[in-house]
Amino acid sequence: MRIIFSILFLVSLVAPSFGQNDTLVHQKIYFVKPKIELTTGIGLTVASFFGFRQLDKVAHLSKEDILKLNPNDLNSFDRPIAFKNPANFASAEKNSDLFLNLSLVSPALLMLDKNIRKDWVDLLSMYMMSHAVDNALYFGAAYSIRRPRPLTYNPNLTAEEKMGDGRSNSFFSGHVSFSSTATFFLAKVYTDYHQIKGLKRVGLFTLAAIPPALVGYYRTEAGKHFKSDVITGFVSGAICGILVPEFHKRLQQKKNLTFQPIYSPQFGGVAATLAF
């Protein structure tokens, strides 16, 4: 917990210092249509709650299913997770939820910057769309791939403790994916607005990787996911958190790109002008 609060405190100190370098003319970084994207993003996010409930039912394992599972059938990379101590499951799951929730609200730190908060509606729209895309990837994998969770292989649990709903939706980790989407969205937007490049950009994205990494660690300690589930979720979320803003950034660049025909006695052509 000390690590995550140190990260949030560091970002909160950095954000106002950059925000003081305000420009006379506020320039849009992203091209967003809030009426469409915010409504769509919220609608899909609300719908996802019903998707989670249905997924738990689809991911049901019976006692007969449990008795067929053998830890030796797991690959060597993931196999150790099947033998985690069940006594730590409850506390690990609680910690994973804590870091997930902190990650989800972390983009609110962007509002500390007066340049960025002017576009809060656009940013909220993009943030919701980032999660909508990530949810689509998650549900696409979780509904189509039936992978039992690590705890269902654990020899220290009874068959009754292993069976039930939500037991075969291990791939991939939604907690890690959602966390990664949020923190990488924060880093992407912040570095875009302040045109941060090089090692500073690498450093901020490295900080963004810490919260979802902690979520992933505790999800494995809780017997919920294998290491490969966590890695896949991390990558999926990072891609959504980065590429959705990048897509809107490129739309803005196209919006500012104008073409004008040029004619002269010597040549004819088209001049392209990119407004910054």
TrEMBL record:
Top-level division of the source organism's lineage: Bacteria
Keyword Glycoprotein (UniProt): no
SMART domains xrefs: acidPPc
Signal peptide: 1-19
Occurrences of domain Phosphatidic acid phosphatase type 2/haloperoxidase (ranges): 123-245
Record bears the keyword Methyltransferase: no
Database matches in Gene3D superfamilies: Phosphatidic acid phosphatase type 2/haloperoxidase
InterPro entries reported for this sequence: PAP2/HPO, PAP2/HPO_sf
Pfam family, one: PAP2
Keywords, comma-separated and alphabetical: Signal
CDD domains assigned: PAP2_like (cd01610)
Record protein name field: Phosphatase PAP2 family protein
Annotated organism of origin: Flectobacillus rivi
